[in-house]
Amino acid sequence: MSVLIDMSKVYFQYLRNQSDNQWLLSDINLSIEKGEFVAILGANGSGKSTLAKHFNALLVPSDGKVQINGMDTREEQNKLQIRQTVGMIFQNPDNQLISTIIEEDVAFAPENLGLPPEEIHQRVDWALNAVDMSAYRLHTPFKLSGGQKQRIAIAGVLAMRPQCIIMDEPTSMLDPSGRASVLRTIHRLNTTFGITIVLITHHLEEAAQAQRILVMDRGRIVMDDPPESIFSQFELLHQLNLGIPPITLLTKRLQRHGIDLPANTMTADKCADAIIAMLEAHHGNH
Amino acid sequence: MARDLTVGQFLPGHAIMHRLDPRTKILLTFFFIIQVFLAKSTVSLCFLIILLFLFIFFARLSAGKVFRAVRPMIPVIVFTALINIFYVPGDSVLHFAFLHITKQGLFTGFTLFVRLTVLIVGCSLITYTTSLNALAAGLEQLLSPLAHLRVPVSELSMTLTITLRFLPSLSDEFEQIVDAQKSRGAFFDQGSPIRRIKSYFPVLIPLFMSAFRRAFELANAIECRCYHGGKGRTKMNTLHFAGRDIAAFLVFTALFFLTIIFNFI
Predict the structure, then answer these.
(1) Residue B260's closest CA among B82, B34, B3, B13?
(2) A48, A275, B52, B74: which has the fewest Cβ within 10 Å?
(3) What is the pLDDT of residues B102-140, one digit of tens each?
(4) Closest residue of A to B222, CA-based?
(5) Can you tell me the distance from the alpha carbon of A275 to that of A282, in angstroms, rounded to the nearest whole number?
(6) Which residues in chain A have their CB less than 8 angstroms from residue B161's CB?
(7) In this structure, what are the phi and psi dihedrals at residue A14, rounded to the nearest 5 degrees?
């Protein structure tokens, strides 16, 4: 696998050369490979959104270097190519949709890229299909649910055929079913189309579904590990004001009472399986 | 309720008036306005009225609904007509104290009444039969030659599209803020007019704040989707004139000359 996003010694603050200001990002060294599914966890104000905006040149580092597919984000002529490579989805779907017709909204990015009409049509068809919203092609977004609007926003980014999509808390304004549908879509993009996903969230349950979790605190990356080892560092997560998922709490508690459960039980399904397996083994012995 | 704003007065349908290219409809509306002001005789004015009902018929709209659009304009129309009845000099028909009603005055008043009504109803037909998106697309393509004169046509149409998109969002938000302020004890429909106007400041300020916040977020979102102005942009759907558009132009030209001929009868 090859490196898609490469950051070395990145420091950032909005007003440069005001040395008494605290760095919003400091000493970030990071590389994300093609096809990865990475979650960025952190409390409010930990710098996760600021970091994400460096991935597609919305912000450029005050010091250090960010390279996307080898292109430096500080070079003005790379910007269009970088934004086409790395798409971004924001929290509020209402503020990302620009047209009153869904089809036109999805066509917006390919129109900006100056593609011929037939190619735009193909891409719109494909993108709407990929998020399972083809039936709404000629509808207006106003009447859709939050989850559906967010999937339209994802289709709008997909139409650029990006290699990577950054999701900045895409589910925080959605109801549980909308949230589930968006998360399912995100997974499908990663597994079916091999699109690199960077999911920013403060929900540990969402982060648990990634292959790798970065935990941020006050502008620094404090952990960078697979979910299993992140969730085993219970005390540290607590210190960083991150809510521990109830399943993890349950597992911990059972373990404390001497019940033998594996450490990697982050989802309800895995936990249930482990308990069932344990019970079966237990009963089998008697 | 607020959502209706997006569609304006547009009533979706499949009548011939709906299916015409928006550019045709825009151009023919201008054509019609000129025609209305060229009609001078009683015959040509009556011809216009007949035309109007024919248009309404071809748009498959109910006449009552269409004429409702004129309702807010009635005072203006009546006032303009009355002023003319009293002020145009000529052969006196009725004489009372300082008021003179003349034959010419009555005719001018009648002319203006018919012209203004026909004009407003005629123009409202385009908004009844064309969605705002189609109108914006039509305007953009009609104005596109101006891009050579460095008029930012594409940017203007983008602004228009975004405005249409966010109007209902802002109006929803307006209602929410009004409710929020009411629940904190604000009154909006009491006291003197000045007091009432003042009572809206606590609504407008949060509304502006949120509009700016939305604007920043939107700016980021469209930048992420490679928007870099109108340069090098293509369109997914371009408008094409069909046979019916040419037919409509021919019919309107004929009607135009008929109106002028009727002026001399």
Answers:
(1) B34
(2) B74
(3) 888 888 888 888 898 888 888 888 888 888 778 888 888
(4) A96
(5) 10
(6) 98-100
(7) -65, -50
- Please check whether residue A173 is in contact with residue A205, taking contact to mean a CB–CB distance below 8 angstroms: no
User: Cα–chain-centroid distance for residue B261?
Assistant: 29
Query: Who's near B66: CB < 8 A, 6+ residues apart?
Result: B56, B121, B124, B125, B128
Cross-chain residue pair B225–A108, CB shorter than 8 Å = yes
Q: Is the CB of B132 inside 8 Å of chain A's CB atoms?
A: yes
* Measured distance CA(A126)–CA(A122) in Å, rounded: 6
β-pairing, B92-96 vs B99-102, is: antiparallel
Q: How far apart are CA B13 and CA B125, in angstroms?
A: 13
Distance separating alpha carbons of residues A281 and A18, to the nearest angstrom: 63
- Looking at every residue in chain B, the average pLDDT score rounds to 85
> Does residue B143 contact residue B153 with C-beta atoms inside 8 Å?
yes
Task: Starting at the earlier edge strand, list the strands of the sheet with A37-42.
Answer: A86-89, A164-168, A196-201, A37-42, A212-217, A220-225
Q: Kindly provide the b/e burial profile for residues A164-198, where b requires at least 16 CB atoms within 10 angstroms of the residue's own CB.
A: bbbbbbbbebbeeebbebbbebbeebbeeeebbbb
Q: Give the residue from B51, B29, B45 showing the smallest Cα distance to B114.
A: B45
Q: How many CB atoms lie within 10 A of CB B68?
A: 12
pLDDT of residue B5: 41
Tell me if chain B has a CB within 8 Å of the CB of A76.
no
Instruction: Kindly report each contact of residues A231-236 with a partner whose C-beta sits within 8 Å and lies 24 or more positions away, as own/partner.
Output: A231/A204, A231/A263, A231/A266, A232/A263
Token representation of residue B235: 């369109």
Tokens standing for residue A24: 């919003």
What CA–CA distance (Å, rounded) separates B132 from B129?
10
Q: Which of A110, A202, A97, A75 is nearest to A152 (CA)?
A: A97
User: Which domain does B113 fall in, by range?
Assistant: 2-262
3-class DSSP state of A97: coil
Cβ neighbour number for residue B73 with a 10 Å cutoff:
15
Between helices B243-262 and B42-58, what is the axis angle to 10°?
160
Residue of chain B whose alpha carbon sits nearest to that of A125:
B236
H-assigned helices in chain A: 48-54, 79-85, 102-112, 117-130, 146-158, 176-192, 204-207, 227-232, 234-239, 246-256, 268-285
Tally Cβ neighbours within 10 Å of residue B88: 17
Rg (CA), chain A: 21
CA A148 to chain B, closest CA, distance in angstroms equals 17
The model's pTM is 0.80
A121 interfacial to chain B (CB closer than 8 Å):
yes
Instruction: Indicate the number of domains in chain B.
Output: 1
Residue B149 CA to residue B143 CA, distance in Å, equals 11
What number of C-beta contacts closer than 8 Å exist between A and B?
Answer: 91
Tell me which DSSP letter residue A142 carries: G
Task: Give ipTM to 2 decimals.
Answer: 0.82
Q: Each residue of A182-202: pLDDT tens digit? A: 999 999 999 999 999 999 988
In the predicted model, is pLDDT for residue A84 greater than 90? yes
CA Rg, chain B, in Å?
A: 24
